[in-house]
Amino acid sequence: MPKASTKLQGFLREYCISLHLSCHPCIVGLFGIAFQSKEHYCFAQELVGIPESSVKRCVLQISSALEFIHSHGLVHRDVKPENILLLDSQCCQVKLADFGLAQKRGTLIRFITGTLPYMAPELCNVALLDNQKEVTMPPLSVEPSLDTWAFAVVIFCILTGYFPWEHCMDSDSFYQEFADWCMIKKKPFIEEEIPPLWRRFTPEAMEMFSKLLAPDASQRIAVGEVRVFVEKDWLKKDHGNK
Question: So which domain of life are we looking at (predicted)?
């Protein structure tokens, strides 16, 4: 757990509760090991999660689905893990669901709904939203770049297990750190300049994220361009790359 966003008391509380409950066969197992590094509090649990190879299979299929949607002049507008269905444990067949918020590209909207961490800056910069709350705003054109942003946040989430930020506004320090890095990033990337939550990723993955999560919507790449990065490593070897 990053020290930047976690208090020691909160870490110890979660560790103790998790250890106490981990004896149940349907609760993730925990080992009696807790330690800290310079930037993280850590405890050890059984290996549970989606390996990078499976994440990439998922990414390729969802990007294909979104390309198809966009080619028909539509925008999904609600890309998130809850709407991605895995038909097998290896992510060999993945399907995108829930078109309740889908709209025609170019539609002007005055009300925005959705899940905050996946909302692009152009949606969040009007006001601080409560989840599932509608807020009146000036008309905004629905564009595929909204799906591109949410798609990239999903990639981050399934690789890490947590959100990169709560909302894309100046008041969110985690978002602001990333946005500032996007503005000043240089090649080759200097690890000390990369925001702490992103340092588990390789330079190639950071290049991908910087293009998918460009704060300026006009600078975001199309979802299909993620294929260029799939053959490259996304997680550093010391962060459990598989």
Answer: Eukaryota
